[in-house]
């Protein structure tokens, strides 16, 4: 046991937090960072200038608390989402992680349960444990898909208070059909389950993929969560949001910290939304690189999952950790999500994607007959 762990264990930490590890994707200094599904394209110069001007203006009023209701931001997010959303349907916080945490604070907690379907976003169980909510793992098929029938049956059996559906799913990248959301919502009727559809990567979906925003009218237990970290290239600014019935946002007002969205965060988000078209222009480029990765990995004999996101989850690797390390040694950091035979890579700029594909090709061809690193492992 390390000295630090020893010291931690001497503290009167909550029993349910003892032995847990914090969220911790590696933050390493390497030339090509493709491990946490960031938008690899920087902000266009004129958008950066607009944000700096807005932040500078907001700084003149920093002696005062910010608008607790972030009214302008809610109006702008509602206009961006469309689907008949208005200010009262919108809530925002410091990243969608905080939005999800607030939902658990309001609807989860001791004696309550939250359910999701691994492999999925690794923060769901951590957010559950942080709020004293018991976490239930649902099951997917062997190819990581989730059908409406299976998801609904599992929700009916487990009767959770909260269900997380991640679409497109992290780490697999694939979007869920709306039939899954509808079936889970209906199955959650008996336990009055809050159903969250985490659409952090929605903007990267293939054309024609529907959003669960369509299902919101008449479904007061349904929440669609989104973020400006991915398509808007603002991961560093920490802005996430949701759309739901107005009474859901009223529930979140009971648990949010006063003035939780700083004036600087609000100014940044408002300026970015005023330039949404310019920021989202890179989404098409990223989708192109994503599709290129899928095609080239397939040509290499690997098995990428269909991706509606800005990353690709791929299998067919006999020794994924060795490949991950080899890529890192070549200056390319991707993600080992701990699933046998698989790795996950974020779509980069054209040059970054080329660096990843070249390094991977070289690693695979170093192996016997060019294939010892590729096997039937799934
Ligand atoms: C599925 C999913 N949801 C939510 C988040 C959280 O994003 P943020 O807190 O930056 O909005 C992430 C981040 O990677 C994610 O992959």
Bound molecules: pyridoxal-5'-phosphate
Number of helices: 12
| Mean pLDDT over the residues | 94
Based on Cα principal axes, name the global outline: globular
Order of helices and strands: HEHHEHEHEHEHEEEHHHEEHEEH
Q: What's the CATH topology label of the largest domain?
A: Aspartate Aminotransferase, domain 2
Rg, alpha carbons: 21 Å
> What is the CATH class designation of the largest domain?
Alpha Beta
Helix content: 25-40%
| Adjacency order of strands in the biggest sheet | 2-8-7-6-5-3-4
Protein name: Histidinol-phosphate aminotransferase
Cofactor: pyridoxal 5'-phosphate
Subunit structure: Homodimer.
Enzyme class: transferase
Structure description:
This protein is an alpha/beta fold. The chain folds into 2 domains: 105 residues, Aspartate Aminotransferase, domain 1; 230 residues, Type I PLP-dependent aspartate aminotransferase-like (Major domain) (Aspartate Aminotransferase, domain 2), CATH 3.40.640.10. It is 39% helix and 13% strand. It is built from 12 helices and 12 strands. The protein has a 7-stranded mixed beta sheet with strand order 2-8-7-6-5-3-4, with helices on both faces. The chain has a 3-stranded antiparallel beta sheet with strand order 9-10-12. Strand 9 and strand 10 form a beta hairpin. Helix 2 packs antiparallel against helix 9, helix 3 packs parallel to helix 9 and helix 4 crosses helix 5. It is globular. About 2% of the residues have low confidence. The structure holds pyridoxal-5'-phosphate. Pyridoxal-5'-phosphate (PLP) binds next to helix 4. The site of pyridoxal-5'-phosphate (PLP) has 13 residues, from helix 4.
């Amino acid at each position: 046991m390390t000295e630090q762990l020893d010291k931690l264990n001497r503290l009167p930490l909550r029993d349910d937090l003892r032995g847990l590890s914090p969220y911790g994707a590696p933050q390493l200094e390497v030339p090509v960072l493709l491990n946490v599904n960031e938008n690899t394209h920087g902000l266009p110069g004129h958008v950066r200038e607009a944000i700096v001007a807005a932040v500078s203006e907001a700084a003149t009023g920093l002696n005062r608390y910010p608008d607790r209701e972030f009214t302008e931001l809610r109006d702008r997010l509602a206009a961006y989402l469309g689907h008949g959303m208005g200010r009262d349907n919108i809530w925002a916080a410091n990243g969608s992680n905080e939005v999800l945490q607030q939902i658990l604070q309001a609807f989860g907690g001791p004696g309550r349960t939250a359910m999701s379907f691994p492999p999925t976003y690794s923060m769901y169980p951590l957010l559950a444990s942080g709020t004293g909510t018991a976490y239930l793992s649902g099951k997917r098929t062997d190819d990581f898909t989730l059908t409406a029938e299976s998801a609904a049956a599992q929700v009916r059996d487990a009767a959770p208070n909260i269900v997380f559906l991640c679409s497109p799913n992290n780490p697999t990248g694939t979007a869920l059909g709306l039939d899954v959301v509808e079936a889970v919502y209906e199955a959650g009727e008996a336990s009055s389950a809050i159903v969250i559809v985490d659409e952090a990567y929605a903007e990267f979906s293939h054309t024609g993929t529907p959003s669960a925003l369509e299902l919101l009218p008449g479904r007061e237990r349904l929440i669609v969560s989104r973020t400006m970290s991915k398509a808007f290239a603002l991961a560093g600014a920490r802005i996430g949001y949701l759309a739901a019935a107005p009474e859901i946002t009223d529930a979140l007002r009971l648990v949010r910290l006063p003035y939780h969205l700083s004036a600087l965060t609000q100014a940044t988000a408002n300026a970015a939304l005023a330039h949404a078209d310019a920021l989202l222009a890179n989404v098409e480029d990223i989708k192109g690189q994503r599709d290129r990765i899928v095609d080239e990995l397939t040509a290499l004999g690997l098995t990428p999952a269909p991706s509606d996101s800005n990353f690709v989850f791929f299998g067919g690797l006999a020794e994924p950790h060795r490949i991950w390390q080899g890529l890192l040694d070549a200056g390319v950091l991707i993600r080992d999500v701990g699933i046998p035979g698989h790795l996950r890579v974020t779509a980069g700029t054209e040059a970054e994607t080329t660096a990843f594909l070249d390094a991977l090709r070289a690693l695979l061809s170093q192996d016997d007959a060019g294939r010892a690193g590729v096997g039937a492992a799934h």
